[in-house]
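Tip: read the tokens left to right.
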């Protein structure tokens, strides 16, 4: 998806970071790839509000991310699930999102796809997201 959104150079930066998640590669990834998470300009204060721990980040991307999979247990969820998916999300691609939705109990799951939107739906379409989340939360059980 990064290549579709930003071209082969953006894809190369993403591949470099995910194959070798060093601090330098992460910094390059955030500079080059993060703008492609959304289809509108990112608020300038977004990154400044994030607390980063280089050791935790590297640990997560070197191991935990590669092994962390709760998919086999998602069918145990008994409460309603509201699943939002951006069709241009380069991190949780629409294919990954569909796989996740398929693993959730159908009777408890509502999925909303956002055409033309990326990873940060509340930034890209705040009014729409707020309205549908409000409706979901206020619905009768």
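Filled-in amino acids:
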């Amino acid at each position: 998806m990064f290549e579709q959104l930003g071209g082969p150079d953006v894809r190369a930066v993403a591949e470099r970071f995910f194959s070798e998640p060093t601090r330098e590669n992460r910094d390059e990834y955030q500079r080059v790839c993060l703008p492609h998470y959304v289809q509108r300009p990112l608020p300038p204060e977004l990154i400044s509000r994030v607390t980063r721990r280089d050791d935790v980040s590297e640990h997560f991307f070197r191991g935990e991310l590669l092994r962390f999979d709760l998919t086999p247990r998602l069918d145990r969820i008994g409460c309603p699930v509201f699943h939002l998916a951006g069709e241009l999300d380069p991190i949780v691609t629409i294919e990954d999102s569909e796989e996740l939705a398929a693993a959730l109990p159908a009777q408890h799951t509502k999925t909303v796809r956002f055409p033309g939107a990326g990873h940060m739906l509340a930034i890209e379409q705040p009014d729409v997201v707020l309205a549908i989340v409000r409706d979901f939360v206020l619905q009768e059980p």
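The chain has two domains: 2-67, 72-138. Strands lie at 81-86, 109-114.
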